[in-house]
Amino acid sequence: MNDVINLLNQHRSIRKFTEQSVPSEWVGEIVKAGQAAATSSFIQACTVIQVSQGDVRNQLAECSGNQIYVAQAPIFLVFCADMHRHKDACEQHQQHMLSGYTEQFLTASLDCGLFAQNCAVAAESLGLGVVYIGGLRNQIARVSELLELPELVYPVFGMCLGFPDQNPEIKPRLPLEIVLKHEKYSVDADVKHMHEYDAQVQEYYRTRTGGGKEMTWTEQISGMLVKESRPHMLPFLNEKGFLLK
Q1: What is the tens place of the pLDDT at every residue in 217-235?
Q2: First to last CA, the chain
Q3: How far apart, in Å, are the Cα atoms of 32 and each of 120, 122, 162, 179?
Q4: How many separate helices (H) and strands (E) can be counted in the chain?
C-alpha cells in the first residue's frame, strides 16, 4: 500500500550479520525513534543499555541460552522497563512514590515494547536486520546484576542489530480472519482457519529446513504451553519492586 506498510510486512528475524560496523550516529537516531513511540500518560518508562562486544556481552549470550549472535552482533541493546527515575522525580518534589502496583508494571512493560518496536522499524528502514532476545529472561537475575540495574528496573528483552548476512523467508502469520474480529469475540470460524494456517506453517518449516522439521503452529504452541514458563520471573520482579499489589 505504501513504503511504510511494505517495510512492516517484510519483517524477518536476522541472526547472521556481516562484519560491517553500524555508525554510532545511527544507533542514536534509532533510539530517538524509539522515544517517539506512544507512552502511557507521558511516563516514558524505557531505558536502553547498549552493550559493547566483550566479556559482559559474552555473559549475556550465555544467559540467553548461548545464542552466539548475541555475542557477535555489531550492536546489542537491552531494553529495560524503568520506574526508578520516576521515584527520583517524586523525591525531587518531596513526594513518596506509591510503587509496586500491577498497573505500573503493565504500563512500564508496554512502554518498553512500543519503544523497542519503533527502534526495530527504524533500524530496518536503514537496511539493518534485527532479532529480539527474550532469552535474557532465562537468567534474569544474573542479567540484572551484570547491568547493575537498580530497584524498579528490569530487563524486558535484548535486540541484536547489524547488516544482514542472510535472507530468510518471511514467516507466515495467523490469518487476518482470526486476528481481526468485529463487534464481539467470535470463534465460529477460528478452527477452520487454524487448520489452514497449520498447513501453511508446516510447509514453511518443511521448505526452510529441507524436510527436517514439519511442525504445525498448533503443535508448536501445544508443546510449549504444557511446560513451565520461567517460574523465577515473579519472585525476581517482586524483589525489584514490581507486582506487589
Answers
A1: 999 999 999 999 999 999 9
A2: 45
A3: 12, 9, 18, 31
A4: 11, 4
Half-sphere exposure of 100 (CA within 13 A, CB side): 8
Model pTM?
Answer: 0.95
Distance of alpha carbon 126 from alpha carbon 20, whole angstroms: 14
Query: For the segment 23-64, what is each residue's pLDDT rounded down to a tens digit?
Result: 999 999 999 999 999 999 999 999 999 999 999 999 999 999
User: How many angstroms separate the most distant Cα atoms in the chain?
Assistant: 64
How many C-beta neighbours within 10 Å does residue 149 have?
A: 21
H runs (alpha helix) in the chain? 3-9, 24-35, 55-63, 68-72, 84-92, 102-125, 140-146, 176-179, 190-209, 217-224, 233-239
| DSSP H helical ranges for 49-83 | 55-63, 68-72
Scanning 64-134, the segments in alpha helix (DSSP H) are: 68-72, 84-92, 102-125
Q: How far does CA 167 lie from the centroid of its chain?
A: 21
> DSSP readout, 199-221?
HHHHHHHHHHHTTS----HHHHH
* Phi/psi of residue 220, nearest 5 degrees: -65, -45
The β-bridge partners of 78 are 49, 158
Q: What is the DSSP letter of 53?
A: S
Amino acid at 106: L
